[in-house]
Amino acid sequence: MELAYIPSPSRGVLYLGPIPLRAYAFCIIIGVAVAVWLGSKRWVERGGAKHTVGDIAVWAVPFGLVGGRLYHVITDHQLYFDPGQNPWNAFKIWEGGLGIWGAIALGAVGAWIGARRRGVPLPAWADAVAPGIALAQACGRWGNWFNQELYGRSTSLPWGLHIHKVNADGTVTDGIFQPTFLYESLWCVGVAFLVIWADRRFQLGHGRAFALYVAAYTVGRFWIEYLRIDEAHKLLGLRLNDWTSILVFIGAVAYFVIVGKKRPGREDPDSIDPAAKVVADAEESSNSTT
Which of 5, 144, 243, 264 has its CA 20 to 30 A from that of 280? Predict the structure, then answer.
């Protein structure tokens, strides 16, 4: 018998009459709110307008959710399209299953659309929101805790996670496992603080703060992924997400180094957000009138 462990919630959904309130969704919503709040604060500090981050997030977030779900469904297609599976379950996003790689990739497309509409350089915006995205991931991982999913190998560690659930095939999982959701959540918090510190210390700009976030996250994701035991495709002994982490890490480091040599420092604060200049001009005109 284990002397200590992290308990799992008995359920991840509450009902307000006929309306289901799902903890997984709340974790994502809280994460988005944190990302927008911190991103807006950092954007204003860089010379941008207060509401620009939120306006662009209106495009980035839904694109990111769709991209995250698509990546999950494509890479774990056997869960939905193999014989005996229900393809309609691919739309049940509330049951978990968002791939961060797809979320970032398609979310970037949405952010690019929003940034173009606001006349904002996307790399500068990405630098501002980078630590907030890491914190959003930290919040989102707690949704896996509520759903009792994506845990690691069996363990006797005192911070092991107790899982007791009935699986889709009727079997019961009961035991103490590595709390990979907690490892990744804590890692993402550390990544957020790393990016904030490095950004202030070295004045990162032109997308380099975002590249640092990506590189640091992939390092943690690589070893955390190695602990997980959920079904996954493998290549040369490594899970698909491990290979993705390696490739994305190389790309992020290359971008960081190349852009750092070509465009050191940050963007001109007066050039990153036309809306900020409009507000400043309006305030100046108002002050001169009074």
Answer: 264
Residue given tokens 């869960």 in the structure block: 79
Q: Is 3 inside any structural domain?
A: no
Question: Following CA atoms 92, 178, 220, 127 in sequence, which dihedral angle do they give, to the nearest 10 degrees?
Answer: 50
Q: Using an 8 Å Cβ cutoff, are 252 and 211 in contact?
A: yes
For the record, the structure tokens of 165 come out as 């659930």
Look up the pTM and report it: 0.88
* H or E stretch at 164: strand 161-166
Q: What is the pLDDT of residues 68-107, one digit of tens each?
A: 889 888 887 887 887 877 888 888 776 667 788 889 899 9
Is 5 a member of any domain? no
Residue numbers of the domain that contains 206: 13-289
Tokens of 55: 């306006």
pLDDT digits (tens, 9 = 90+) for 208-237: 999 999 999 999 999 999 899 887 778 888
Q: What is the total count of domains within the chain? A: 1
> What does DSSP say about strands 238-239 and 234-235: parallel, antiparallel, or unpaired?
antiparallel
